[in-house]
Design a protein that fits this description.
The protein is an alpha/beta fold. The protein is 45% helix and 16% strand. The protein has an eight-stranded parallel beta barrel with strand order 1-2-3-4-5-6-7-8, surrounded by seven helices.
């Protein structure tokens, strides 16, 4: 694939600030990292949305949040209420967790209805559907991707990062192959290095969820400056 500049790679990143134990000071430090590196967005805990919007005002970094996180088992009505509150607080993108048990049970209509309700409540804002691929087999991942498309979401996403597994290249490729061109793929969970980030993009991801934005973009900056670590792969090969 063509070489990515630092700005182009930053434009694929949703900087994750989701750990439950983070203090306000730690959240602020991460928000400042996002602003400093010019990533596309932050994905913050629902209770941090309004604060993040205020702190990032004027930086060009969008604020997103999570819905039904991290298990996806809240009722559809609860997810819809979360969406409405998130939008009121200033979020512009929403990463919802699919009802994983419903998906594994083959309850496809219920899965689609859940997604459609969230998409409708989002009123045109971007919705990404998290499948939690580490808990699914390949058939379930492919079917979940198709159900995401049927539900009208903009993205299908691999993982929350809280289920003991994250994105893999084969799963990203499978998700890309399972949906049409209008649905994008987000790789999230375990994306902590430049090589991993670029591998996910090469497999078909157009957005990356990571808390390692500074590391990833710093590696690319060093390579572009001719200061990359010994043995680092030339970014021009991507």
């Amino acid at each position: 694939m063509p070489r990515l500049t630092e700005a182009e790679l930053a434009a694929t990143i949703d900087h994750a600030i989701l750990k439950p134990e983070l203090t306000r000071a730690e959240v602020d430090a991460d928000l400042d990292v996002a602003a400093r590196w010019g990533v596309f967005s932050v994905c913050v805990r629902p209770s941090d949305i309004a604060h993040a919007v205020a702190r990032l005002a004027g930086t060009g970094v969008a604020v997103g949040t999570v819905i039904g996180f991290p298990h996806g088992t809240t009722s559809t009505a609860t997810k819809v209420a979360e969406v409405r509150q998130a939008l009121e607080d200033g979020a512009v993108e929403l990463d919802m967790v699919v009802n994983i048990g419903f998906l594994r049970s083959g309850m496809d209509d219920a899965v689609v209805d859940d997604i459609r309700a969230v998409v409708a409540a989002a009123s045109g804002h971007v919705v990404k559907v998290i499948l939690e691929t580490s808990l699914l087999d390949e058939e379930q991942i492919a079917r979940g991707s198709r159900l995401t498309e049927a539900g009208g979401a903009a993205f299908v996403k691999t993982s929350t990062g809280f289920a003991g597994g994250g994105a893999t290249v084969p799963h990203v490729r499978l998700m890309r192959e399972s949906v049409g061109a209008d649905v994008q793929v987000k790789a999230s969970g375990g994306v902590r290095s430049l090589d991993t980030a670029l591998a996910m993009i090469e497999a078909g991801a157009t957005r990356l969820g990571t808390s390692a934005s500074a590391t990833i973009l710093g590696e690319l900056r060093a390579i572009e400056a001719g200061e990359g670590p010994t043995g680092a792969q030339d970014a021009s090969s991507y």
